Amino acid sequence: MVSDIRPMGSNCLPFEASRDYARSLNLTIVRKWYALSKAGNLPAIIPTNPDKIYRNRGWTNWEDFLGKGFLPFEEARAFARGLGLKNDKEWREWRKLNRSSNIPTHPDRDYRGHEWKGCGDFLGTGNVKNNRGRHLSDSRRTK
Asked: Does any domain span residue 4?
Protein backbone atom coordinates (compact mmCIF):
# COMPACT_ATOMS: atom_id res chain seq x y z
CA MET A 1 0.00 0.00 0.00
CA VAL A 2 1.27 3.43 -0.92
CA SER A 3 0.34 5.89 1.80
CA ASP A 4 3.57 7.64 2.67
CA ILE A 5 5.11 10.68 1.07
CA ARG A 6 7.95 9.38 -1.08
CA PRO A 7 11.05 11.55 -1.13
CA MET A 8 12.00 13.65 -4.14
CA GLY A 9 15.07 12.48 -5.95
CA SER A 10 15.95 9.58 -8.17
CA ASN A 11 12.93 7.68 -6.78
CA CYS A 12 10.38 10.09 -8.31
CA LEU A 13 9.77 11.28 -11.83
CA PRO A 14 10.41 14.95 -12.61
CA PHE A 15 7.39 17.22 -12.12
CA GLU A 16 6.40 17.41 -15.80
CA ALA A 17 6.44 13.63 -16.22
CA SER A 18 4.38 13.11 -13.05
CA ARG A 19 1.91 15.75 -14.23
CA ASP A 20 1.61 14.06 -17.63
CA TYR A 21 0.90 10.77 -15.87
CA ALA A 22 -1.70 12.40 -13.59
CA ARG A 23 -3.44 14.02 -16.55
CA SER A 24 -3.58 10.69 -18.37
CA LEU A 25 -5.77 9.35 -15.56
CA ASN A 26 -8.55 11.87 -16.37
CA LEU A 27 -9.31 12.46 -12.72
CA THR A 28 -11.70 15.29 -11.93
CA ILE A 29 -11.16 15.69 -8.20
CA VAL A 30 -8.20 15.46 -5.85
CA ARG A 31 -10.02 12.95 -3.67
CA LYS A 32 -9.76 10.39 -6.50
CA TRP A 33 -5.97 10.91 -6.62
CA TYR A 34 -5.72 10.16 -2.92
CA ALA A 35 -8.00 7.12 -3.31
CA LEU A 36 -5.64 5.71 -5.95
CA SER A 37 -2.71 6.40 -3.68
CA LYS A 38 -4.33 4.79 -0.65
CA ALA A 39 -5.22 1.71 -2.70
CA GLY A 40 -1.59 1.41 -3.82
CA ASN A 41 -2.45 2.07 -7.45
CA LEU A 42 0.14 4.76 -8.18
CA PRO A 43 3.52 3.72 -9.57
CA ALA A 44 6.33 3.97 -7.03
CA ILE A 45 7.98 6.70 -9.10
CA ILE A 46 4.93 8.99 -8.74
CA PRO A 47 4.71 10.87 -5.41
CA THR A 48 1.53 10.47 -3.40
CA ASN A 49 1.59 14.13 -2.33
CA PRO A 50 2.87 15.97 -5.40
CA ASP A 51 1.80 19.34 -3.97
CA LYS A 52 4.43 18.92 -1.27
CA ILE A 53 7.09 17.08 -3.26
CA TYR A 54 7.06 19.47 -6.23
CA ARG A 55 6.65 22.70 -4.27
CA ASN A 56 9.15 25.13 -5.80
CA ARG A 57 9.77 22.59 -8.58
CA GLY A 58 6.94 23.48 -10.97
CA TRP A 59 3.86 22.95 -8.79
CA THR A 60 1.08 25.53 -9.18
CA ASN A 61 -2.16 23.82 -8.09
CA TRP A 62 -4.17 20.61 -8.31
CA GLU A 63 -6.18 21.86 -11.30
CA ASP A 64 -2.99 22.23 -13.31
CA PHE A 65 -1.59 18.89 -12.09
CA LEU A 66 -4.74 16.91 -12.91
CA GLY A 67 -5.46 18.90 -16.06
CA LYS A 68 -8.97 19.86 -15.10
CA GLY A 69 -8.86 22.69 -17.62
CA PHE A 70 -10.91 25.32 -15.82
CA LEU A 71 -11.12 28.79 -17.26
CA PRO A 72 -9.06 31.48 -15.53
CA PHE A 73 -11.03 33.13 -12.70
CA GLU A 74 -11.82 36.37 -14.55
CA GLU A 75 -13.17 34.49 -17.59
CA ALA A 76 -15.18 32.11 -15.42
CA ARG A 77 -16.69 35.03 -13.49
CA ALA A 78 -17.63 36.85 -16.72
CA PHE A 79 -19.25 33.66 -18.02
CA ALA A 80 -21.14 33.07 -14.75
CA ARG A 81 -22.38 36.66 -14.67
CA GLY A 82 -23.71 36.25 -18.20
CA LEU A 83 -25.98 33.40 -17.07
CA GLY A 84 -28.21 35.76 -15.08
CA LEU A 85 -28.36 33.47 -12.04
CA LYS A 86 -29.46 35.06 -8.76
CA ASN A 87 -27.75 32.96 -6.05
CA ASP A 88 -25.59 29.97 -5.21
CA LYS A 89 -28.61 27.63 -5.24
CA GLU A 90 -29.35 28.53 -8.86
CA TRP A 91 -25.63 28.12 -9.61
CA ARG A 92 -25.62 24.57 -8.20
CA GLU A 93 -28.76 23.69 -10.19
CA TRP A 94 -27.21 25.07 -13.38
CA ARG A 95 -23.99 23.10 -12.79
CA LYS A 96 -25.90 19.83 -12.30
CA LEU A 97 -27.24 20.21 -15.83
CA ASN A 98 -23.96 21.45 -17.34
CA ARG A 99 -21.23 19.12 -16.05
CA SER A 100 -19.17 19.34 -19.22
CA SER A 101 -18.46 23.01 -18.61
CA ASN A 102 -14.90 24.21 -18.01
CA ILE A 103 -16.13 26.06 -14.92
CA PRO A 104 -15.77 24.27 -11.55
CA THR A 105 -18.81 23.08 -9.65
CA HIS A 106 -17.40 24.69 -6.50
CA PRO A 107 -15.74 27.90 -7.69
CA ASP A 108 -15.36 29.03 -4.07
CA ARG A 109 -12.92 26.16 -3.53
CA ASP A 110 -11.22 26.05 -6.91
CA TYR A 111 -10.72 29.80 -7.23
CA ARG A 112 -9.80 30.47 -3.61
CA GLY A 113 -6.91 32.89 -3.68
CA HIS A 114 -7.87 34.17 -7.14
CA GLU A 115 -9.82 37.27 -6.14
CA TRP A 116 -12.75 35.15 -4.83
CA LYS A 117 -15.12 37.51 -2.98
CA GLY A 118 -18.18 35.32 -2.73
CA CYS A 119 -20.94 33.93 -4.89
CA GLY A 120 -22.62 37.34 -5.23
CA ASP A 121 -19.50 38.77 -6.81
CA PHE A 122 -19.00 35.70 -8.98
CA LEU A 123 -22.58 35.81 -10.29
CA GLY A 124 -22.70 39.61 -10.43
CA THR A 125 -25.64 40.03 -8.06
CA GLY A 126 -23.72 42.13 -5.54
CA ASN A 127 -25.19 40.10 -2.68
CA VAL A 128 -22.91 39.08 0.17
CA LYS A 129 -23.70 37.04 3.26
CA ASN A 130 -23.23 38.32 6.77
CA ASN A 131 -21.71 36.09 9.44
CA ARG A 132 -25.13 34.47 10.04
CA GLY A 133 -25.48 33.39 6.40
CA ARG A 134 -28.13 36.02 5.60
CA HIS A 135 -27.85 38.05 2.43
CA LEU A 136 -27.33 41.78 2.75
CA SER A 137 -28.17 44.30 0.06
CA ASP A 138 -25.62 46.89 -1.03
CA SER A 139 -27.28 49.60 1.07
CA ARG A 140 -27.36 47.54 4.28
CA ARG A 141 -23.77 46.38 3.78
CA THR A 142 -22.31 49.88 4.13
CA LYS A 143 -24.10 50.74 7.40
From this structure: no
